[in-house]
Amino acid sequence: MGRATALLAAFCLFAAGVWAVATTAWAVPVAVASAPPTTTGPSPTPSVPATPALWTQSTLRTHLVAELNRTDPGVALDDLEHITEVQPQVSRFCHPVAHDLGHAALKKYGSFSKAAAFRNDVCGSGYLHGIVEETLAQSPDPVAAVTTLCAPQLAASCIHGIGHGAMFVSHLDVSKAERLCDRFGQTYQVVACSEGVFMQLFEPDEDDPAALAQLPAQRLAAEPLYPCPEQPSVFQSACYFYAPIYYLQTHDYVNHPASFVQALSWCLNAPTAGGQQSCTRGTGSRLMKYNIDRPGWTAAQCEAAPQPWQRPACVGGMVSYWNVNFHDKSARTKLCPQLDGAAAVACRSASGGSTSAD
Question: Which sequence spans correspond to the domains of the chain?
Answer without folding.
Answer: 216-358
